[in-house]
Design goal:
By secondary structure, the chain is of the alpha/beta class. The chain folds into three domains: 3-95 and 182-190, D-Maltodextrin-Binding Protein, domain 2 (3-Layer(aba) Sandwich); 99-174, D-Maltodextrin-Binding Protein, domain 2 (3-Layer(aba) Sandwich); 201-278, Alpha-Beta Plaits (2-Layer Sandwich). It has eight helices and 15 strands. The protein has helices spanning 14-30, 46-54, 74-82, 117-122, 124-130, 161-166, 215-226, 258-267, and strands spanning 3-8, 38-43, 60-67, 71-72, 87-95, 99-101, 112-115, 135-138, 155-159, 171-174, 183-190, 201-207, 230-237, 245-251, 273-282. The strands form two sheets. Strands 1, 2, 3, 4, 5, 11, 12, 13, 14 and 15 form a ten-stranded mixed sheet that branches. Helix 1 (14-30) links the parallel strand 1 and strand 2. Helix 2 (46-54) packs parallel to helix 3 (74-82) and helix 7 (215-226) packs antiparallel against helix 8 (258-267). The model has no long low-confidence stretch (mean pLDDT 94).
Length: 283
């Protein structure tokens, strides 16, 4: 039976690129030689790719969680909180280099640029300088708008050079992201507990019982007093009421270590709902 891996599609997205990276790593480190046993399954949105795992339509999903320029991918964070039983298996850091793809022969011809909101933001400076008057139009993924290009030479899309090659489309400009060290962290997610040992990070989220002074500080002090470092903390609306938030933490410790078990036990005293998304290593 094929191992189905869900990702944001259509084919040619950076999420698909991350899925290939994961398969290569799996093949190299776990001795899996029959690559035909894998099936990449593109979905229109990040939420749908995670939903496919939650509903057992796919065994794994590879989803973006954080970009070095634009920060966290909210749809991934929200979906992990809303869906049950999803567990992070691995984190992948993938370099991102955007290209401007179009049948136009010069930048002066372009009136509209399509791409995923994250990609548009990552190229904001370049677009403001060289295409200050174009319409920026958000799409579900970096490759979704590519099929429209042939019909209109005034349209361009921001996507990867691999996407341009895959769909046999001309590249008008390369390396247009504002920062050359642009990279995105992806999570490999399933419904199974991670079997890897000596994981370097744990991700979790929690809500607090009441919006009162010190509610968040008490949680953070648990980790501070235990000598556990936090590599990321972020708030997201609970979507229940204005001013209510969930808090997402990335922690530099394995959930199975004694120090983390002790910290999580104490954390129960200060949280309303606590979800452990799993421990994992970062490639």
């Amino acid at each position: 039976m094929n191992l189905k891996i869900a990702h944001l599609g259509p084919p040619g997205t950076y999420a698909e690129q991350a899925a290939f990276f994961y398969l290569n790593w799996l093949n190299h480190h776990q001795g899996i030689s029959d690559k035909r046993s894998f099936e990449l399954c593109p979905y229109p949105t990040i939420a749908q790719s995670l939903q496919a795992v939650a509903e057992k339509q796919s065994q794994l999903a590879v989803v973006p969680v954080e970009n070095s320029i634009e920060g966290s991918v909210n749809m991934t964070l929200d979906s992990l909180w809303q869906l049950e039983r999803l567990k992070i298996q691995l984190a992948l850091v993938i370099p991102i280099q955007h290209t401007l793809i179009s049948y136009a022969t010069s930048l002066d011809m372009i009136k509209s640029v399509y791409s995923h909101p994250q990609a548009l933001s990552q190229c904001q400076g370049w677009l403001s300088q060289l295409l200050p008057n174009v319409n920026l139009i958000a799409s579900n993924s970096t490759t979704e708008a590519l099929q429209e290009l042939e019909q209109d030479v005034t349209i361009a899309a921001i996507a990867s050079s691999r996407a341009a090659e895959l769909y046999n489309l001309p590249i008008l400009a390369s390396g247009i992201n504002d920062y050359p060290e642009n990279c995105t962290r992806f999570w490999v997610v399933s419904t199974e507990e991670n079997q890897m040992v000596d994981c370097s990070h744990t991700s979790l989220a929690f809500s607090v019982a009441a919006n009162i002074p010190g509610a968040l500080v008490k949680v953070l002090q648990v980790f501070a007093h235990s000598g556990i470092n936090l590599s990321r903390i972020e708030s997201r609306p609970t979507k229940r009421s204005l001013g209510e938030y969930l808090f997402y933490l990335d922690i530099e410790a394995d959930v199975n270590s004694q120090i983390m078990k002790s910290a999580l036990g104490e954390l129960q005293n200060y949280t309303e709902v606590l979800k452990i998304f799993g421990s994992y290593s970062v490639l």
